[in-house]
Amino acid sequence: MDIKNVKREDGKLSFQVLVDAASFESAVNNAYLKAKKSIYVPGFRKGKAPRMVIEGMYGAKVFYDDAVDSIALDAFKAGMEEAKDRTVGDPAITAYNVDDDKCLTIDFEAALYPEVTLGQYKGLEAEKESDKVSAADVNKELESVRKRNARIVTVERKAKMGDTVNLDYDGYKDGVRFDGGKAEGHDLVLGSNSFVPGFEAQIVGMSAGEEHDIDITFPENYHADLAGAAVVFKIKVNEVKESQLPALDDEFAKDVSEFDTLEELKADTRAKLEKTLADAKEYEGKDKVLQQVYDANPVELPQAMIDSEAANMLNEFGYQLQSQGLNLDQYCKYLNKTQQQMIDEFKPDAEKRVKSRLIVEAVAKQEGVEVTQEDIDKELAAMAAQYGMAQSQIKSIFGEENMDYLKKDIMSRKAIDLMYEAAEITEVDEKPAEEAKDEE
Description:
- The chain is of the alpha+beta class.
- The chain has three domains: about 1-110, 2-Layer Sandwich (Alpha-Beta Plaits), CATH 3.30.70; about 150-245, Roll (Chitinase A, domain 3); about 255-435, Orthogonal Bundle (Trigger factor, domain 2).
- About 50% of the residues lie in helices and about 20% in strands.
- It has 14 helices and eleven strands.
- It has helices at about 20-35, 50-60, 65-85, 135-150, 200-205, 250-255, 260-295, 305-325, 330-335, 340-365, 375-385, 390-400, 405-420, 435-440; strands at about 1-10, 10-20, 85-100, 105-110, 125-130, 150-155, 165-175, 175-190, 210-215, 230-245, 425-430.
- The strands form three sheets. Strands 6, 7, 8, 9 and 10 form a five-stranded antiparallel β-sheet that branches.
- Strand 1 and strand 2 form a beta hairpin.
- The protein is extended, with a radius of gyration of 35 Å.
């Protein structure tokens, strides 16, 4: 195959591939052999009509399209080897021609992989919120642990907000019981707002064994049968229970952790909060730097790259739905949308994601960022620790075919770290001084 008229303009690569007559004739004959089984010609058994008879009936070019399609992939690969360019998306056949000598010429066009001309990506300025942990933060975390370890006990008093009340209820509209308005032995946390507005507040003050009718008006935006309806619930309280928190002392520390004293537990809690907060604030700071790099480095993207990334994002979303026991078809039906409409909605974010990736790749190339075997082993070790598996198992599951993706991910993170470290980061308090003082 001969390649000619290679052109690069407007972000596109175009070229022509010349296929000799013998190769084209072979492709045409193969197209005939494949198609003749389904062609009926009067006077011949189905699939037995000679090629020249079929061409006589339907024209000499009847098998040309199929022949060109069969030879196009090899022709495009030959053109790409000659052009030595990187393209994105599927190539397009813009035209083809068969000359008098039965030689074929195919015109191809493909989107060029965009070139990134880097602007500023070092010395940028960004603010990072303080990652200091206050005593109030530690106390708040310990309070959460206390609540998770609380005891629910029955009390002999009137119910108040925050209590758990076991009750029977029966709802009536215009004196007639309505569907879904009856239950027995139901536990309700007062103040959880899990019932119709006004319901829980009217339970407050009732004691175990007490019965009472309460009046409720359903919201106007409730489902059609009860929207705006005035109803009566017959209530019987069976039991009132309260949550009793454990004392915050050394015994509590022993019960909920490996530590013997409350002070040790507090110190460990502070250390974990500091690590979590520092990681989160650093991530936010990197995101701000990357946004500035994004804004300072315009890149023209071929539509094919945006379309492909948006389709990938839809697939990722589909996997997330599967983990929740749903599927993409059900989700689209629920929203009354097609998958293509969802892809179109993903396109703005897809464009930003692709552009950011290209800029980061360009920075990595400019700075000579490399991924070492040590980097890969460290990453695999972290994944093994996360999933509680041996590193060899992780490597086996990951597979060699995905190793390039892992290397690209590591390289991107190293390039982002480089830009972050080269930026002027100003730490700011996320809370006003007076508010922080009050918390302390």
